[in-house]
Amino acid sequence: MNSENKKYLFDLLQTHSPSGFETPAQVLTNAYLSNYCEDITIDINGNLIAHKKGSGKHKIMIIGHADEIGFMVNYIDESGFIYVKALGGFDVNMLPGLRVDIHHNDNIVHGIIGKKPIHLLRNSDEPSKLKLEDLWIDIGARNKEDAQNLVSIGDTITFSSQIEELNEELIVSKATDNKVGVYIASAVMKELWEKDIKADYYAVSSVGEETTMRGAITSAYRIDPDIAVAVDVTFTSDIPGVDKHIYGDVSLGKGPVLCLGSALHPAINKKLTELAKEHNIPLQIEISPSRTGTDADAVFASRQGTATAILSIPNRYMHTPNEIISLADLDNAVQLLVEFVLSIDDTFELKR
Fold first, then answer.
1. Partners of 72 in the beta sheet?
2. DSSP-assigned letter for residue 336
3. What are the start and end residues of each CATH 2.40.30.40 domain in the chain?
């Protein structure tokens, strides 16, 4: 990964963009892509759509979502403790003790997620599974008035987490889900910028995937692509205690992951598999027999239908402040999708 791409990726991962509040991430992507596409638009929902025109009739969309999981301030009690509602899904039991950033206007207020310590619990008090309402955020306020001078109802909250490089390949970040998808769609555009392509290419940084899917719904309707590839992250099974008989075999550093399933188009999957073999790009396989939990669910049935695929990046510890991914998997995904866009011409058959 070259220095420009790595800087863009790291800046994107560290920028706050909880679901529904993605503008800071879109500003970064707009700046990165401004020299590598013919036009960029940001629609009424906040989707960023970059376009490079091809000489043929097909339209290809590669989409990643810019939003990350987070919270919103819901209530401030008389002691100045803050209660929240979720933007996206969490394992609530892993939240106590984590550091968070509350985004109030242009300021960041630091806080700690608290719960009653185990030393103060009676046996009957200990819940079998925590609920979000069992937790609060402590910003060090003396009382409600003190807290209200710093934060407001509706302020957004993200995990406080800096990028760590575990080695030359693996990185840790709070928001690889799914800013790596935005990075890949954008890096593909950069690689294609000085190349002749047959199909029109649209790189989409969508919004709201973790909560509403509205970004994928409206961008697919607007573009009306013939082909779409949703780039997201997927769970790995390379950690202790995971039964591969149930969850399949997906590991960090062994290449991006192609998803097979009823909603996904066999011709697109076949082409991606053939290109991976032809160019010696490692490719892993997973299955999703029904809906996929990604932007693909909002795209494949758009208008008259879209030939859709999912290419995922293995993600260890997803939906935590410490997601781990491999930079090599990102590079291989970019290479595969560049070859895919270059391979599509007017003769490509889209019928099942």
1. 85, 156
2. H
3. 70-159
Query: What pLDDT is attached to residue 292?
Result: 93
| Host H or E run for residue 76 | strand 70-76
End-to-end C-alpha distance for the chain, whole angstroms = 36
If we measure between CA atoms, which residue out of 64, 26, 68, 72 comes closest to residue 45? 26
Q: Are 315 and 166 in contact (CB under 8 A)?
A: no
Name the fold adopted by 3-68+174-343.
Aminopeptidase (3.40.630)
Which residues lie below 8 Å from residue 8, measured CB to CB, with a gap of 6+?
28, 32, 183, 186
**Residue 79 in contact with residue 148, Cβ under 8 Å?**
no
In the chain, ranges of CATH 3.40.630.10 domains: 3-68+174-343
Question: Full-prediction pTM beyond 0.85?
Answer: yes
SS3 at position 218: helix
> What's the count of helices (H) and strands (E) in the chain, helices before strands?
9, 17
Return the structure tokens found at 22.
């993605």
- Report the catalytic residues: 209
Q: Which two tokens stand for residue 324?
A: 């781990």
Describe the strand order of the beta sheet including 164-165 as a list of residue ranges.
Answer: 164-165, 170-173, 323-326
CATH, range 70-159? 2.40.30.40
* Dist CA 193 CA 195 (whole Å): 6
Where helices occur in 34-103 by DSSP H, the ranges are none
75 in Cβ contact with 82 (< 8 Å): yes
Q: How do residues 297-347 score in pLDDT, each as one tens digit?
A: 999 989 999 999 999 999 999 999 999 999 999 999 999 999 999 999 999
Q: CA 329 to CA 331: how far, in whole Å? A: 6
Tokens of 127: 């819940």
| CB-based contacts of 141, cutoff 8 Å, min separation 6 | 79, 80, 81, 147, 150
Among 26, 27, 46, 35, CA closest to 4? 35
Separation CA 147–CA 48 (nearest Å): 35
| Tens digits of residue pLDDT in 235-289 | 999 999 999 999 999 999 999 999 999 999 999 999 999 999 999 999 999 999 9
Give the whole-angstrom CA distance, residue 190 versus residue 111. 38
Tokens found for residue 29 = 């992507």
